[in-house]
Description:
By secondary structure, chain A is an alpha+beta fold. Chain A has helices spanning about 5-25, 40, 90-115, 120-125, 125-135, and strands at about 60-65, 75, 145-155, 160-165.
Amino acid sequence: MTLISTHQLYTVGGMSLFLALIAFLAMLRTRPMRGAFSALLRPFVSSWRFFDQVTELPVMQIREVSADGTLGEWRNAILAPRVRSWNLLYHPHGNVFHAKQTLLQQSFIELTAEKRPTQLVEETSAFQLLRHLAETSRSDDIPPAAFQFRVGYELGDVFEDHLISPVIQ
Amino acid sequence: MIGPMDPLWWSEKLIAVAVIVQLSELLAVRSVYSDVGVWRWNTIRQDFAFLPQWCRRILDGGLRAGRFELVLVSGLVAAVCLLFRSSAALLAVMLCVSYLVALRWRGAFNGGSDSMVLTVLLSLFVARLFSAYPTIVFASACFVAVQVVSSYFVAGVVKLREPTWRDGSALGMILRTPALVGARIHQTSALQRQLPLRGLAVGVIGLELAAPLILISFPICLALVPLYALFHLGNAYLLGLNRFLLAWGSALPCVVFVSRVLSG
């Protein structure tokens, strides 16, 4: 009588090899998928590196610019929705909130990864999506006016901006 | 034989519920992907400029505002039908719709949960298409099980190498970051002052690293699977990650099935 069957030996052996491989891959520092075809493959490929590096997250702020050029106060563009008990299973606005945060982080990484002339930056889909994000977060109470947005980090009371848009009419 | 005694039957019904919830959520927030919303198709379609024109026409036809809602409804109808009848065709419709939804959001609407839903749908579709071949059915379930185990194990490995995770400070930071916890910020900020963060963080890392054991021993699998379900429930409550609860919830029956077979 043996302590471990051949079947179990193969299972444990195969499993050990598999774990060693994915542990090795997990240790490698990888960069987010970029390039033309990445948009098609990305849905099927996840790195599973949930919360691997917990650092400060970029924040978007917007301000209104009145017709006479007066600049309003900067305020956060992405606001968290209220949470109710049924949101444990069904949370449409909560998921839009998370999707906006992801859009902000991804676009911020895309736009700051390489130095590009301002005009080229403004033509990218990443910049335009950030612009839509800022545009749709403006208050309905204020009559349509020009606005400006910035993305950066909130460090205590100081805002360190890394990306600031021109005044958008 | 397809029925409640078959673990893949449970995966199928649970993924149907996950897809119903996900598509209903998207139909409830139509304004964000309308022509005046955040995710305007006219902007996102620029990412697909490299595709041949016929491909772009198909995407334009299905993903522009007005048409996209029809795509969502077709996926919703297929998911509701799947609750009552197992079918490879219904799974194929749900798979295509879920993939189009991910493309509409430049890869994923809700990160890893979209990938897990696609993994489960793809595997169940193959399993149902070749249901007469037990080896293919088992291989499909194995694919889901490997993805689930990898998802926990990789997450555990990357946390283990981070000093801020080992001392609990990363967990504390998550609980007080408004961008991650949303409206629960007051509760989670209070929690991070009261909870033994280091112990909790070590517990999370340990639970994630223990994932491979579920494929080696069936009794361990039966002990750990409820813990993973609780873990996702906690994440859904504190971080608002309800989609992860549903996606991983639908994958776990496949893991139980594979564990039972591998344990002999």
